[in-house]
Design a protein that fits this description.
Layout (H helix, E strand, L loop, with lengths): L5 E3 L6 E3 L13 H14 L12 H10 L1 H10 L4 H24 E4 L3 H37 L8 H10 L2 H17 L3 E4 L3 H45 L6 H22 L1
Parallel strand pairs: 3-4
Antiparallel strand pairs: 1-2
Helix pairs in contact: 2-3, 3-6, 3-8, 4-5, 4-6, 4-7, 5-6, 6-8, 7-8, 8-9
Length: 270
């Protein structure tokens, strides 16, 4: 007799099987016990209905903008990494465009202009390579934190949390691209005379002050709006991913705190 088919007689405690009508030890009627036992086994063996993905990759992106609740439910119940990879690639494209913007806005003149420009280009390239690793590591760490912070007893898996976290970066990507377009018109061009280091230093200080004001007046509001948007998407995903054991408010709070920390760090580093 298998373990799942074992039971005990309610009168004498002897071992019985699910098909017995009378106890072989004491003769007690087991009809009610057998029927209840059979119903219990049947209910335990009912397989959980598998969720079938509703939206394609393109539809998921579209629905995230037009019907976020439907999109995040589909992502949470049928997680994937393809959409996350596209968002990460687009963030890297944003970084490339930002580098191109800097190189277009800054000009060097003087005896060492070419040398300085070479160092600036090298520094920006190394910064881009470093950014690739930072974006991926940031996504993995946030996914791990979300996995446990939003668990609420659901025991949901890491893939679901990582997919939700990755798709929640869509607002950040969109706002980043918009920010680059706006910055193209707002960031002033500057010519640095590297032949005179003191003049170049003063020009750099003036240029930095202009960028700080631009960051305060334009970048910060856009970034905060993106944080709220991203937190809402993440909260929806956490709610559906944990089968509603994690409330929407809790999910939003977790994503908001993580996003706020990341936002503060990025503003300090820049």
């Amino acid at each position: 007799m298998s373990e799942e088919e074992k039971a005990t007689c309610p009168k004498c405690g002897a071992l019985i099987s699910k098909g017995d009508r009378f106890c072989k030890n004491c003769g007690a009627s087991l009809i009610e016990v057998s029927e209840a036992f059979t119903e219990t086994l049947s209910s335990e063996r009912v397989p959980e209905e598998l969720y079938e993905r509703k939206f394609s990759l393109t539809q998921r992106f579209y629905k995230l903008l037009t019907a976020p609740s439907e999109a995040m439910r589909d992502i949470a119940l049928a997680p994937d990494y393809e959409g996350v990879a596209i968002i990460i690639v687009m963030e890297l494209v944003s970084a490339i465009l930002a580098i191109a913007l800097v190189l277009q806005k800054i000009h060097f003149v003087g005896e060492y202009a070419n040398t300085v420009m070479g160092f600036v280009t090298l520094g920006l390239t190394l910064g881009f390579i470093f950014a690739i690793g930072i974006i991926i590591v940031r996504w993995l760490i946030k996914s791990l934190i979300v996995r446990y912070a939003c668990d609420s007893g659901s025991a949901w898996n890491f893939k679901t949390a990582a997919s939700i976290t990755g798709y929640a970066y869509l607002p950040e990507m969109i706002i980043g691209l918009i920010g680059i377009c706006v910055s193209w018109f707002l960031i002033p061009s500057m010519t640095f005379n590297v032949a005179d280091l003191e003049v170049a230093r003063q020009q750099l200080e003036s240029y930095q002050a202009q960028l700080n004001w631009l960051k305060l007046l334009c970048t910060l509001p856009f970034s905060f709006f993106g944080l709220l948007w991203k937190s809402y998407l993440g909260g929806l995903g956490a709610r559906f991913g944990t089968k509603e054991k994690c409330s929407l408010d809790t999910g939003i709070a977790v994503f908001f705190v993580l996003g706020l920390i990341s936002l503060l760090i990025s503003f300090v580093i820049r």
